[in-house]
């Protein structure tokens, strides 16, 4: 399936928003959140550019599963480090071990459903963290209500990441054509929600 001109425009807008977030949107955060958010939005920027240049064929690369894990893990780590001080080290350990687990299970052939289970658990925890934490913080009044937009972005990244990961793993949750059709728009909406949530909520 070839990318349409509209798909490429959506990819370009996604890349521009991700670049803005790296350059401007994370100023004022502490060191580890800056690193985590820079990695997440930097990977998103590179992914958008690769989609524009190479089209959907880039999704056939074995590295797609790993890349689609870096973004939610990095974002969720930054959020936990900022807002849940008591769980910083525990979540940092989870993020590192979760990434290594996916890297290992995708680098070496393993029988059965274990690689898929690892993928689902890591994506599930990271995605739920990005989705629930900003919304709960907003409901508690700990942050401005607009920060809940980050949670909406978390829901979108969870859906997109799982769809891509299971597609690459050979166990698609939606037909390939459907995933590719909605992917550019989904990436743009997700990135816009993140950027707006961070910008409107302040530091």
Provide a descriptive summary of the structure in words.
With 203 residues, the chain is mainly alpha-helical. It has a single domain (5-201), classed as Rhopdopsin 7-helix transmembrane proteins, CATH 1.20.1070. It is 78% helix and 0% strand. It has seven helices and no strands. α3 (64-83) runs antiparallel to α4 and α4 runs antiparallel to α5 (114-139). The radius of gyration is 16 Å and the shape is globular. It starts with a helix and ends with a helix. 41% of the residues are buried.
Indicate the percent of residues in helices.
over 70%
Counting DSSP H or I runs of 4 or more residues, the number of helices is 7
Structural class: mainly alpha
Shape annotation: globular
Order of helices and strands: HHHHHHH
* Name of the CATH class: Mainly Alpha
CATH topology: Rhopdopsin 7-helix transmembrane proteins
| Proportion of residues in extended strands | under 5%
Total domain units: 1
Query: Overall pLDDT, averaged?
Result: 87
How many beta-strand elements?
A: 0
Give the CATH architecture. Answer: Up-down Bundle
Features of this protein?
globular, Rhopdopsin 7-helix transmembrane proteins, mainly alpha, 203 residues
Present the secondary structure layout:
Blueprint (H helix, E strand, L loop, with lengths): L4 H21 L5 H24 L9 H20 L4 H20 L6 H26 L8 H21 L7 H26 L2
Helix pairs in contact: 1-2, 1-7, 2-3, 3-4, 3-5, 3-6, 4-5, 5-6, 6-7
